[in-house]
Write a structure and sequence with these properties.
This protein is of the alpha/beta class. It contains 16 helices and 22 strands. Strands 3-2-1-4-5-6 form a 6-stranded parallel beta sheet, sandwiched between helices. It has a 6-stranded parallel beta sheet with strand order 14-13-12-15-16-17, sandwiched between helices. α1 runs parallel beside α14.
């Protein structure tokens, strides 16, 4: 498939990297330095040009393009690119936007703006924050099989009860599969004797209850349902959407916003949220409002540095868990090292959602882990699949290394996969795999 990606910033570059192995990718950007950089770093054709120019789109091969992805930093530009592409050819168009009102307009008017699929960065980021907040200690969370199956990634701290244990010793849960251990730059498919080490990231797949129970053994922090106090710092659009989603879960968060007009607006729009007008970087305010007694502090200010500062102050007054928005991807690892428990990068979240969408033609659902080093697929078994009518033991023997069957659902019921489990047509199978074997596994399954 020929794909044109307009915008070679952090989002566009991540998208191009994620799909270049499967598709013929052309990237357009106005910045000559970005074009040169992506030309040397990725297996794509990069062109200096303007995505709103039909001539430049045609130079990139618009006539033969199956997909156009508009991923610049301007909502309006991305919409113009999508509409322009539709006037010349008939590619499927994907537009990245930040403004949720544009998303709502698009949802209400079929094919509005000439956009076939729209990803709203702020809303997608807020949903990611809420998903992570809902599972203590989780770095990444995703659901499959209509919510019956959950995948989660946890970092193992030195004082974690599973640090130094074998997988067999740690696996005390009825419906849980240890799918992988991510250790530095390696993805390890664990066996029963594999030792879990401090600093590892452990990926588990299983029932919602089992994953929650496993999370409870790693962290004493409460689940989202148990959380008595959640504080959101910053009345940005991400902060507002996070509060709205938490309200939808039946929770009553507190939101701190320094600007009086914005605080008043949020108080009117969020009936289930207590909005406080103050500066959350004032430690006296944090002490006075007993923020240290909260279960989670979510920093959604418009500055990465201030989000880090808020997280550090929250830790200082006693908060167990902090989640912070980090706009610049290069800061994520650093900020998680020095003060934020989980850093969420909106650009990476958006890139992963768009990349996910381009791959879903092969699967029903998928999730990407560790910057696309590993993936989790949900596949419905049909007669053409290697899975059909075979035991899991026999299937895995025919698959390349780096593949684990994590869960099976049949007629709405979860089945814990075992070597002797025979897979039937219509089963939904959740599979963990190393991205390097994605193409081979997709053909077989």
């Amino acid at each position: 498939m020929r794909v044109i990606v307009v915008g070679a910033g952090e989002v566009g570059t991540n998208i191009a990297e994620g799909i270049a192995s499967d598709h013929d990718v052309v990237v357009i950007d106005r910045d000559e330095d970005r074009v040169e950089s992506i030309t040397y770093s990725h297996d794509v054709l990069a062109i200096r040009g303007d995505g709103t120019s039909i001539d430049d789109l045609e130079e990139a091969g618009l006539a033969d393009a199956d997909l156009v992805i508009a991923s610049t930093d301007s909502d309006e530009t991305n919409i113009v690119i999508s509409g322009g592409a539709k006037t010349v050819g008939d590619p499927f168009t994907i537009a990245r936007v930040k403004k949720t009102n544009l998303l709502r307009t698009w949802e209400r008017a079929e094919e509005a703006f000439g956009v076939d699929f729209m990803v709203c960065t702020d809303l997608q980021t807020a949903q990611t924050v809420v998903d992570i907040a809902g599972l203590p200690g989780a770095r990444d969370v995703d659901s499959f099989a209509n919510g019956l199956v959950r995948m989660a990634e946890f970092e193992v701290d030195p004082d974690s009860p599973v640090a130094g244990e074998t997988v067999a010793d740690a696996d005390q849960f009825e419906s849980l599969t240890f799918a992988a251990i991510i250790r530095e730059d390696d993805v390890v498919i664990p066996g029963g004797e594999t030792m879990i080490e401090a600093g590892d990231d452990v990926v588990v797949i299983g029932s919602v209850e089992s994953v929650r129970e496993f999370a409870g053994t790693l962290s004493p922090a409460p689940t989202l349902e148990q959380a008595a106090e959640i504080v959101i710092v910053g009345g940005s659009e991400i902060g507002y959407q996070t509060a709205r989603l938490l309200e939808a879960e039946g929770l009553e968060p507190r939101l701190v916003e320094q600007d009086p007009d914005r605080a008043r607006e949020l108080a009117e729009r969020l009936p289930g949220t207590l909005v406080l007008e103050s500066d959350a970087t004032d430690i006296d305010f944090l002490v006075r409002e007993h923020v240290g007694e909260s279960d989670i502090v979510i920093a959604t200010l418009d500055s990465d540095e201030r989000n880090l500062l808020v997280s550090l102050l929250a830790k200082r007054v006693g908060v167990e868990r902090t989640i912070g928005i980090v706009e610049y991807g290069e800061y994520v690892d650093l900020f998680e090292t020095v003060g934020i428990d989980v850093a969420v990068n909106p650009r990476l979240v958006t890139a992963e959602e768009i990349t996910r969408f381009t791959r879903e033609q092969r699967t029903e659902n998928l999730a990407m882990l560790e910057h696309d080093r590993a993936e989790v697929l949900e596949i419905e078994v049909d007669r053409d699949s290697l899975l059909f009518g075979n035991r899991i033991r026999d299937v895995t023997a025919k698959l390349p290394d780096g593949v684990v069957v994590g869960a099976v659902t049949r007629d709405g019921e979860l089945i814990t996969p075992r070597g002797e489990t025979v897979l039937e047509g219509g089963d939904h199978v959740v599979v963990f795999l190393d991205t390097e074997v994605l193409d081979e596994v997709s053909r077989l399954l």
